[in-house]
Amino acid sequence: MNVITVPSSLDDQSFEQVLEQLAPLAPDDRILLDARNTTWASPYGLTALLTLAQTRLVKPQFYAPEKDDTSSYWSRAKFFDYAADLFEVLGRVPARGPERESGTLLEVTPVSKSDDVHKVVERIQAKASQIITNNLHLESRAVMGFAMALSEACQNIVEHAGRGGWVAVQNYNYRRRMGRHVVQIAVCDAGVGIRQSLESGNRRPLTDRWDDGVALETAVIQGMSRFPDFGRGQGFKGIRGYLRKWKGKLAVRSGTARVADVPPWDDDVVRRDHLAPMPGTQLFIMIPEEVDR
Amino acid sequence: MTMPHIIDVCAVLRSAVNQDYGNLVTRDTGMAVRHQIERELAANREGGITSLDFSSIGLMDYSCADEVVAKLLVLLQNDDLTRGGYVVFRGIGEEHLELVESVLKHHGLALVCVCDDGNPRLIGRVSEAERRAWDMVRIRGTACPADLADEFGFGEDFVAEVLGELSRRRLVVRRGDSGFVALDAADMVQ
């Protein structure tokens, strides 16, 4: 059994540690993801864990967090509802108790078809409006763009992934880390990934260099889709435009590369290549509270 | 006067997806809604004006706007589902205008939209001359090139060419040999 240690704080950055441990292993190697010492996970962390399980040929084992607060939050976020099918779950999994205020805008939710996207948007509408105007202090028209960005992000799964994925949305008060509220959206799938998606539609640009990083830039920055229709590929453009307006961040990972639209408040790098491989596409969005009012 | 032909886009949405949804999201949904609108437009009288009413729509995303608005306009210009008819968009809220305009500009399209204040607006990609000519026709209700040439500052032929292009793009109604009518005015006097 290969033990993969899940970091104590699991987000889009620290998830790379999980993938680095996994990289030398074959897809059919037996693995145990040990999250006993994990005390915090972002929506990206939770959805990426489920996505990772989908990529394994042998059902992996998963040790649940030992800390009660952590495991009960993961339970309320519905992580264990889906983990039960994808992992052999070890350790104590608390029953999902009564709903309580946790900042969860959308629990971990599967997305595989157009109807799922409708349900996600309908469910999040009222709560998003309240959090975006009251916590993030953005103008009310930002709510519309938020739902649009969420919808377009989820549609990437429906239109391109070739298999179902996951979405989750959470509001945080990052007082210590950033000094403000933020909303995070994670949309992860273990599908074909952006490079293969473009190749399947013969949309690979005529260039000598062709790898996951170039494919990501072609899709995310240049708005190329595997479909030749002129109106396609505008989803990322819409998401990026919305995030630029509200100083938000977008990071998209696919295969062995990651590109990001980095706002002034963040010090992330714009593009990373030669990362540990991960099938599919994983998307991370963060919208911060407006503090310059 | 005939009754204006109005298509409630929210009702079409609910019928097309057979669910009680109020948001125009996803490309699949947009395609289903557009196909139903196409059928309704084709069944409308020849040369008529149809209002597409978006006022009960909650949210809209790029993919759906691309299907419902942009692809519909391309069909109207090229295949002319309305057999010489016109389409006016109504009830597109301020919060959606930016998104719709972005989709239209991407395709080089334009539409006439009657906004919340009741005034028609030309949104999308139009030349400066087209916008001026459209505004002049809108203010007058109806005009011919000779009426506008002086104010325009160019010759009658140039104005006729601009108005002809607006008519081809279904942004003003051509009446007779040289008359042009604003879409909202034409709606009232049918």
Walk me through the structure.
- The complex is a heterodimer of chains A (293) and B (190).
- Chain A folds into two domains: 1-94, Transcription Regulator spoIIAA (2-Layer Sandwich); 101-293, Heat Shock Protein 90 (2-Layer Sandwich).
- With 293 residues, chain A is α/β, with parallel strands linked by helices.
- In chain A, helix 2 (43-55) packs parallel to helix 4, helix 5 (114-134) runs antiparallel to helix 6 and helix 6 (141-161) runs antiparallel to helix 9 (234-245).
- Chain A starts with a strand and ends in a 5-residue tail after the last strand.
- In chain A, the strands form three sheets. In chain A, strands 7-8-9-13-10-11-12 form a seven-stranded antiparallel sheet, with helices on both faces. A four-stranded parallel sheet of chain A has the order 1-3-5-6, covered by helices on one side.
- Chain A has helices spanning 15-22, 43-55, 68-76, 79-86, 114-134, 141-161, 193-200, 212-221, 234-245, and strands at residues 2-5, 9-10, 31-34, 40-41, 61-63, 88-90, 104-111, 165-174, 180-189, 249-255, 257-261, 271-272, 278-288.
- Chain B is α/β, with parallel strands linked by helices.
- Chain B has two domains: 1-125, no CATH class; 126-190, Orthogonal Bundle (Arc Repressor Mutant, subunit A).
- Chain B has helices at residues 9-17, 27-43, 62-78, 94-107, 128-140, 145-152, 156-168, 183-189; strands at 5-8, 49-53, 86-90, 110-114, 120-124, 142-143, 172-175, 179-182.
- In chain B, the strands form two sheets. Chain B has a five-stranded mixed sheet with strand order 1-2-3-4-5, sandwiched between helices. A three-stranded antiparallel sheet of chain B has the order 6-8-7.
- In chain B, helix 2 (27-43) packs parallel to helix 3 (62-78).
- Chain B is elongated.
- Classes of the chains: A alpha/beta (293), B alpha/beta (190).
- Chain A binds chain B through residues 114-115, 117-118, 121-122, 125, 140-141, 144, 147-148, 151-152, 155, 158-159, 230-232, 234-235, 237-238, 241, and chain B through 17, 19, 21-23, 25-29, 58-63, 66-67, 70-71, 94-96, 99, 102-103, 106-107.
